[in-house]
Amino acid sequence: MKRSIRLKFTALFIGLLAAVLLAIWAVNSFFLEQYYIKEKVKILQNAYEQLNQYAVEQAAKGGCVTDQLQSFYSTDGEQTEVSRMLRVMNEQYNTTVVVIDSLNDRTFPAFWDGRLLADLVHQYILGKKAPDTETIISEENYKIEKSYDKHSKSYYLQNWGFLEDNRTIFIMSMPIASIHESVALSNRFMVYVGMAALVIGAVLMYFAGKKITSPILSLAALSERMSELDFDARYTADSQDEIGVLGHSMNTLSEKLKDTIGALKTANNELQQDIEEKIRIDEARKDFIANVSHELKTPIALIQGYAEGLTEGMAEDAESRDYYCEVIMDEAGKMNKMVKQLLTLTALEFGNDRPMMEQFDLTALIQGVLSSAAILLQQKEAVVNFTAKEPVMVWADEFKIEEVVTNYLNNAMNHLDGRREIRIRIQQQENEVTVFVFNTGNHIPEEDLEKLWTKFYKVDKARTREYGGSGIGLSIVKAIMDSHKKACGVRNVEDGVEFWFTLDCSI
C-alpha cells in the first residue's frame, strides 16, 4: 500500500495545525501592535469625553475644572469626581493627565511630570513638535499623537487640546509598552508549544488512524472476494458509524448481486432463444425475397417474349397489337425494376452491400445526375435551379450517393405541380454538408411524413401507379443513409416539399 490513509490523516493534521500556528504568528506579528494602540487610543478618547463633560457641567455652574482639583493631593480629604478620575487614569491605566487653566496658567497636578507636560502642550499649541511625532486622530478640540522620547527611548501616546468650557487646556500622556518585544516573545513561545503539539498530535493521529483503517481494509478484502463472485463473504464488525453502515450495505449488495446474477443467467438463456428465433425469421425473410425475385423473373421473361411475338404480326389488327405490346413491355419493365430495387434494398438492410468510403466532388456528382436526366426533365417541363459551381468534397460511397440524388430527383419530377420548379442546394456547416432537393407541388400530410421511408408505402396510389412507382425508392435512400450513419428527412415548406440528407466533408 503506497499511500496509507493513516499517513494521509497524519499529514493532514500536521498541515492544518501548522497553518493555524502560522496564521496566529502572522496575526501577532502584523496586527497585535495596531490592536494594542487602538485600545489605548480608546482609553484616551473616553478619558477626554468624561473630562470634557465634567468641564461643561462646571462651566454651566460658573465654576472651573481646576477648582475641583484641589483635593487631588489630599490623602484623607473628600475627593471630587474629577480628582478621582485622574487618580484612576494614573493608577489603573498608567496615564498622566495635566489640566491647565488658561486664564491664570494654573497647572494641576503641579508635580514634576505635570510641569513637563504643561510645557510640552504649550509647545504643541505654538506648533513646536518633535520630528518623531505621528498624528493618529485629529478632532476639532483635541489630537491624539504618537511620539518618541529620545531620553527614555520610549514611545508615548499623548492626547492634548481644549475642553469645551473655553478656558481649560489638557494633556494626557500614556507610555506604550514595548509591544515588538512582547510579540517576539509570544511568537517564540508559540513555536515551542506548536512543535510539541505537532509531534504529539502526529503520533496520536497515526495510532488513532488504525481504528479507521482496519475496518476499511476489511471492506477492501470483502470487495475483492465479491469481485471473484464469492457472494457468501460478509462484513462482521458491529460498529455503528459510517464504515459500519457501508459494510452492512455491502452485505445487502452481495445478496442482491447473487440474486441478480441468477436472474441474468435466466434472462440470458431467454435472450439466446430470442436471438435464434430472430435468425430463423431473418433467414425466412431472405428466402422469401429470394423466392419472390425468382418467381418474378419467369413471368417477366414470358411477358417480354410474347410482346416481341405480337410486334412481329401475330395479331390481326396492327394498331391493337402495338397497343397491347406496349402495355405488356411497360409492365414487364416495372416488374423488373421492382425486383432490382428489392434486391438492392435487401442487400443494404442485411449489411451485404457496405459503403466504400472515398472522397469525391458532390457538386460534380449532382451536375452529372442532372445531365443524365435532362431528357426526362424536359419531358416533365421542369425548371431546375442548381447554381453551385465550387467543388464540395465529401466522404461517402459515390455510387450509392448518386443513387440517393437520383431517387430524390425522380421523386421530385413525379410530384411536380404549380410552377414546376426543382431547386437543389448545398449547405455546408463546419464538418458536415446538407443537400436539399425541393419541388413545387402539394404538401404531404403530416401523418404520412414518417411513413414515406417504409417499403411499398404510397401516399397517392393512383399517381404512383401512373408513373410506375413501387414505393421502394425512398426506402433505398433511408437504407443507404443508415449504412453511412448519416441522416435524411423530408419537410413541407412554402409552395412545396423539400427532401434532404447529410454527408461528412472531413475525415
What topology does this entry show?
Elements: H1 5-60, H2 81-92, E1 96-101, E2 106-108, H3 112-125, E3 133-138, E4 142-149, E5 154-162, E6 168-176, H4 179-227, H5 242-314, H6 318-349, E7 358-361, H7 362-372, H8 374-379, E8 383-385, E9 393-396, H9 398-414, E10 421-429, E11 432-440, H10 461-467, H11 473-483, E12 488-493, E13 496-504
Parallel strand pairs: 8-10
Antiparallel strand pairs: 1-2, 1-6, 3-4, 4-5, 5-6, 7-9, 10-11, 11-13, 12-13
Notes on the protein architecture:
By secondary structure, the protein is an alpha+beta fold. It folds into three domains: 5-182, Beta-Lactamase; 229-353, Helix Hairpins (Orthogonal Bundle), CATH 1.10.287; 354-504, Heat Shock Protein 90. Helices cover 57% and strands 17% of the residues. The strands form three sheets. The chain has a six-stranded antiparallel β-sheet, with helices on both faces. A five-stranded mixed β-sheet has the order 8-10-11-13-12. A two-stranded antiparallel sheet has the order 7-9. A hairpin with a 3-residue loop joins strand 3 (133-138) and strand 4 (142-149). Helix 1 runs antiparallel to helix 4, helix 5 (242-314) packs antiparallel against helix 6 (318-349) and helix 7 (362-372) packs across helix 9 (398-414). The radius of gyration is 53 Å and the shape is elongated. The two termini are 46 Å apart.
